[in-house]
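FAQ

Q: What does a record look like?
A: Structure on top, sequence underneath. For example:
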């Protein structure tokens, strides 16, 4: 495995690999890697001869500068994990390397990017599209791997690839959870022991709501989740929305879609956690 910090060096390495006919997989990350990331890398290694993992905390997707400052940066530990998973390259550029000048490009994929996270984090998805499109242009992968925990992000990246005509296959990978159900997240490292226990009520509520939904309406299921989170100590609901998994638009009854997903964002202390569950797929 090789650690690379510059675009020119990475491109030179990948040109050689490409000329040798090797397929290239890309796993974009912001570092602070965990088993969820490892599952993406495992799949990428299984499906491609060359795997690039980017390790870059992208400043343009943070609408809260404090969140950017607090985001964990653990490159040394990340490289140890990626070595074990047989990644070929770790691309860990500086901010100046990626953004030698401000990226003024504007991406708009309404209505996908105007709901849920788009509503509460203005500019977030524009920043995501800026960095992911840059990585696609630098790496030129055959396949790119993203976790389904960031469900809305995955839908927007698929749309960006379609509209920008990137010849890249986007692979969505299932949520990886702790043994007790908590969705793995780099932000979990910021939870205190007490908060970590309180955060369990997010996934617990979603699992119970799936069972509840089998005999109740969309509106009743919505209320069930809102009430359960409100009753959970230490948690504050930002939003829970039941949507069509393709359009991300709210549904009002189960019959109007074959792909129903519940997306949730909750504050546990000052740590913002997201999760989702599929009711129909």
């Amino acid at each position: 495995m090789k650690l690379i910090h510059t675009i020119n060096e990475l491109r030179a390495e990948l040109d050689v690999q490409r000329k040798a006919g090797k397929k290239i997989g890309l796993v974009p990350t912001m570092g602070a890697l965990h088993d969820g990331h490892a599952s993406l890398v495992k799949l990428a290694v299984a499906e491609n001869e060359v795997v690039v993992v980017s390790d870059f905390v992208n400043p343009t997707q943070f609408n809260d500068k404090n969140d950017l400052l607090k985001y964990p940066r653990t490159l040394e530990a990340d490289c140890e994990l990626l070595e074990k998973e047989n990644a070929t390259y770790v691309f860990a550029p500086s901010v100046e390397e990626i953004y030698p000048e401000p990226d003024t490009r504007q991406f708009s994929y309404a209505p996908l990017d105007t709901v849920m996270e788009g509503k509460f984090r203005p500019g977030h998805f524009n920043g995501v599209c800026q960095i992911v499109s840059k990585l696609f242009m630098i790496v030129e992968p055959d396949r790119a791997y993203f976790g389904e925990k960031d469900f809305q992000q995955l839908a927007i990246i698929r749309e960006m690839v379609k509209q920008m005509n990137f010849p890249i296959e986007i692979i969505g990978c299932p949520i990886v959870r702790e043994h007790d159900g908590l969705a793995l997240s780099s932000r979990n490292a910021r939870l205190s022991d007490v908060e970590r226990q309180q955060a369990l009520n997010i996934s617990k509520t979603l699992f119970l709501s799936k069972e509840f939904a089998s005999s109740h309406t969309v509106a009743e299921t919505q209320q069930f989740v809102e009430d359960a989170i409100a009753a959970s100590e230490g948690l504050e609901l930002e939003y829970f929305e039941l949507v069509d998994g393709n359009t991300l638009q709210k549904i009002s009854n189960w019959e109007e879609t074959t792909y129903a997903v519940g997306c949730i964002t909750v504050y546990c202390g000052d740590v913002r956690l997201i999760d989702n569950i599929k009711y129909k797929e």
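Q: Is there anything notable about this one?
A: The mean pLDDT is 97.
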